[in-house]
Amino acid sequence: MANLLARPFGGFTSDYMAKRFGMRGRLWNLWLLQTAGGLCCLCLGLVSSLPLAITFMMLFSIGAQAACGATFGIIPFISRRSLGIISGMTGAGGNFGSGLTQLIFFANASFSTEKGLTYMGIMIMLVTIPVSFVHFPQWGSMFFPPSQDIVKGSEEHYYVSEWTEEEKQKGMHQASLKFAENSRSERGGKVASAPTPPANTPNHV
User: Fold this and answer.
1) DSSP H or E segment with residue 59
2) Positive or negative, the Cα torsion across 105, 110, 113, 115?
3) Most buried one in 21, 33, 82, 172, CB count within 10 A?
């Protein structure tokens, strides 16, 4: 039930933050949801009251699933050409991480269940920190603005640079140009971004 409702909620909050703050809003949204989930997991391992344990378990589940939805709110913008590969790697990484966490904290007699939950919560918060280093030249990162280079700081340059000159001559990059044009919405309503270079908008037949 948490998965059914929380994942779409994470995607919804990602879209809402993007509308106001652009891609930087999406990154902050992911960081907040996943960190909150990790904090609830930590608390779950510390409390001794059953009502509190159930409460933190539910909040942890919601935070974890919402963070998954928020993650896939960012994935499509990492690479237009390699979207399938990146999506697959993200899903596989989640499964691998859950198995590894189970092996480290719960399949080992060295930790009690309470200690395992506490350490897992700490781990979740720590592995969320790298989100702050994710930087899109055209949109910026959590703490830093986008590039001021009018060419390299554009959506068109970011997505078209995935194609070789030979592929561009064959017109294979046109879908990426269209995606770049549509992705300008990731500049957000309140965050400045590098202006679009002249003559870089794809021609429409």
Assistant:
1) helix 50-71
2) negative
3) 33
For 136, list phi and psi in degrees, rounded to 5: -100, 120
pTM of the model: 0.86
Please name the residue that has the structure tokens 């995935």. Answer: 162
- Could you tell me where the beta strands, DSSP code E, fall in 25-116? none
Both structure tokens of 136: 């899109």
Residue with tokens 């908008």: 201
pLDDT in tens, 164-194: 999 999 999 999 999 999 999 899 875 444 4
What radius of gyration do the chain's Cα atoms show? 20
pLDDT digits (tens, 9 = 90+) for 83-125: 999 999 999 998 899 999 999 999 877 889 999 999 999 999 9
Place of tokens 């159930």: 54
Count of H-run helices and E-run strands, the chain? 8, 0
Distance between CA atoms of 31 and 37, rounded to whole angstroms? 10
Question: Dihedral, CA atoms, 167, 171, 174, 177, nearest 10 degrees?
Answer: 60
Residue 176: name the closest of 78, 72, 73 by CA: 78
